[in-house]
Amino acid sequence: MNEASVLKAIIEKRRSVFPKNYSDLPIKEEILAEILNSANFAPNHKKTKPWRLKVFRNEEKNQLGQKLAEIYKATVAPQNFLEKKYLDISNKISMSDTIVTISVNFSGLLPEWEEIAATAMAVQNMYLTSTANEIGCYWSSPGMIQHLNEFLELEENQRCYGLFYLGNVATM
């Protein structure tokens, strides 16, 4: 199989795989490193590399789940609060081996859309590398992420655009 055929096969195989389909097996450190490193090869104008990725595993991951549940409880109108959704937030995080927060650093050198687009391409690289390594993943952008700035220690010119869930695939 030539490189173009391999790339085509990976692109066609790429899917969002959700935490309910993840196994308990941890992602090997070298595979996770490869997935994260692939983001660095995304095209970006003026070489700003605007993506900011923060990795959450183990106890840090659980703290992120708790924070997201707290944000949900604090921001939803009392009449719209659903206990099941509140519990599902932490549960979905706990079913994942790794969560990567996806934030954009706006350099001021380029239009914001270019920095957002470059970040999306970095995430696509992570999707493709995950697929090539048979790791399930998906990018989620719940409204709660707009309240994560302090928790993620983001600077004024940075904004969180999502959560990238990762796990070894158990079932499909």
TrEMBL record:
Family matches, as SUPFAM superfamilies: FMN-dependent nitroreductase-like
PANTHER family named among the record's database cross-references: NAD(P)H NITROREDUCTASE YDJA-RELATED (PTHR43821)
Family classification: Belongs to the nitroreductase family.
UniProtKB keywords: Flavoprotein, FMN, NAD, NADP, Oxidoreductase
Pfam families: Nitroreductase (PF00881)
A single MF term (Gene Ontology): oxidoreductase activity
Organism: Kaistella jeonii
Classification via InterPro entries: NAD(P)H_nitroreductase, Nitroreductase, Nitroreductase-like, YdjA-like
Cofactor(s) recorded in Swiss-Prot or TrEMBL: FMN
Annotated Nitroreductase domain residues: 11-167
Name by which UniProt lists this protein: Nitroreductase
